[in-house]
Amino acid sequence: MMQNADPKELAKFSELAHKWWDPESEFRPLHQINPLRLEWIEQCAGSLEGRQVVDVGCGGGILSEAMARRGAQVLGVDLAERSLKVAQLHAMEAGLQNVQYREIAAEALAAEMPRRFDVVTCMEMIEHVPDPGAIVEACAKLVRPGGWVFLSTLNRNPKSFLFAIVGAEYVLNLLPRGTHEYAKFIRPSELASWCRHCGLDLQHTRGLEYNPLTRRYWLSGDTSVNYMIACRKEAQ
Questions:
Q1: Residue 113, SS3?
Q2: Check: CATH 3.40.50.11930 for 7-233?
Q3: What pLDDT, in 10s, does the model give residues 65-123?
Q4: Which of 97, 116, 123, 179 shows a CA-CA span of 20 to 30 A to 162?
């Protein structure tokens, strides 16, 4: 199986791996939006207590740990080895026994564990891989009939270029320069099409906005820059 990953992207996140759990580091935005993502996931899918969850592209485990703290049995997967080691160490120090991590591609995991999970999350990841559609397909294979798939990414339009790259990386310095590549941004219509092709029914869409003056994030109906979608696999 060809590995659906960009070596430059893996190297970039590996270099930053030691900063994953520093809330004032380059990963500060992820720490700030994590409670919003977690609450929205539970609003859509219901309580995570006792649910089997896989977090695809888990990085240092920020969302994985949060879902584990809500009572889910969580498997976090990624291909950045150093990030996974940071995630494993943090979970061990926190005494969390219901979150595990594996260095494995989403497609390989889908072949190994099809229809195994109640909830699949893949946040801020598909815009970093060569074939995002293949990741969506893997997520669809991993989820059980009736289960939920949550995806988040960046819209592709002039506003998102201005806000997510020029603003976030060059003006406000919220993210390291070069974090995102505009050509890899994904329109909601494109993502929805991939989901439908894989047998996932789009249920909800939410946008994520940021006020640089108050330094506050919130969820809204504006999907023009950052957005999340919730899909459900047909029950059989």
A1: coil
A2: no
A3: 999 999 999 999 999 999 999 999 999 999 999 999 999 999 999 999 999 999 999 99
A4: 123
Distance from the first to the final alpha carbon of the chain: 29
Looking at every residue in the chain, the average pLDDT score rounds to: 94
Q: Where are the domains of the chain?
A: 7-233
Strand ranges of the sheet holding 200-211, from the earlier edge strand across to the other edge: 99-103, 73-78, 52-56, 117-123, 143-154, 226-233, 200-211, 216-220
The β-bridge relationship of strands 200-211 and 99-103 is unpaired
Largest CA distance in the chain: 50
Q: What's the Cα-to-Cα distance from 236 to each of 85, 141, 189, rounded to whole Å?
A: 38, 14, 26
Spatial distance between the Cα atoms of 234 and 146, rounded to a whole number of angstroms: 5
Q: What pLDDT score was predicted for residue 174? A: 83
Binding site members: 37, 57, 78, 123
Token pair belonging to 198: 């894989």
**pLDDT, mean of residues 4-32:** 89
Amino acid at 147: G
pLDDT band for 180, please (50, 70, 90 cuts): confident
Q: How far apart are CA 131 and CA 71, in angstroms?
A: 32
Q: Which residue ranges make up the annotated binding site for S-adenosyl-L-methionine?
A: 37, 57, 78, 123
pLDDT tens digits for range 21-42: 999 998 999 999 999 999 999 9
DSSP secondary structure code for residue 98 in this structure: S
Provide the 10 A C-beta neighbour count for residue 76.
29
